[in-house]
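Quick one, tokens below. Sequence please?
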């Protein structure tokens, strides 16, 4: 898997579907994301929630906003509806010079952000993820083995680069649990290669390459578990 890939989607599992639907219905439409329901999950853009497994905990996910005003509106919508403030809108120059973010907590305690930077991205697109891990080196080995591009490469922080977004694993407690990260591939062969590389390197299979027509015709994916047990997928939407 190489740097021509993008984050195709991110999925989390929630303790109370109705409660989480209310939260994300409150804040994500501010960023122009429409809700779509499926029998097993609810999605807004490239982000989905469901109840078909252990609850996702201690994740940080940020959605792109094209202006400071939209970051403010996202945060205000959540706070006005009674959700927990996790950081008022404002500049965070420690991240980058033009970084402006506002943070909330979802009903399961995950950190959810709207962020503006000088980058050009689609409104509401996933901008970045942060996951905490006990072993950054083990995570790095997994992503190198499966052909991903590494950005920040430090003993306590490894950043995986995709076209448009990034996700990072950092040392810390409590560790992030039960996240699904799907990265796009433009051929079925690249999906196969991702899975084969992971298995050859000793990582756990979580779903062999193949079409998953239950998602949609032409959905060709493969799944493996990273060292922290997160479900990492390569997917090609081939029609």
């Amino acid at each position: 898997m190489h740097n021509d890939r993008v984050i195709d989607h991110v999925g989390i599992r929630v303790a109370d579907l109705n409660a989480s639907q209310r939260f994300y219905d409150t804040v994500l439409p501010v960023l122009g994301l429409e809700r779509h329901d499926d029998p097993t999950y609810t999605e807004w853009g490239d982000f989905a929630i469901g109840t078909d497994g252990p609850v996702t905990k201690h994740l940080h996910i940020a959605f792109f906003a094209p202006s400071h005003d939209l970051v403010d509106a996202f945060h205000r919508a959540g706070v006005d509806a009674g959700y927990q403030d996790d950081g008022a809108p404002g500049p965070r120059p420690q991240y980058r010079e033009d970084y402006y973010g506002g943070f909330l907590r979802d009903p399961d305690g995950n950190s959810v952000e709207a962020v503006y930077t000088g980058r050009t991205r689609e409104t509401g697109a996933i901008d970045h993820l942060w996951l905490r891990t006990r072993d950054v080196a083990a995570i790095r080995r997994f992503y190198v083995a499966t052909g991903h591009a590494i950005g920040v490469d430090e003993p306590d922080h490894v950043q995986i680069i995709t076209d448009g977004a990034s996700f990072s694993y950092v040392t810390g407690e409590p560790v992030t649990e039960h996240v699904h990260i799907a990265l796009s591939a433009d051929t079925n062969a690249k999906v196969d290669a991702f899975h084969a590389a992971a298995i050859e390197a000793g990582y756990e299979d979580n779903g062999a390459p193949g079409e998953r027509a239950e998602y949609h015709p032409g959905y060709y994916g493969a799944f493996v578990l990273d060292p922290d047990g997160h479900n990492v997928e390569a997917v090609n939407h081939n029609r």
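The chain has one domain: 7-237. Residues 7-237 form a domain with the 2,3-Dihydroxybiphenyl 1,2-Dioxygenase; domain 1 fold (CATH 3.10.180.10).
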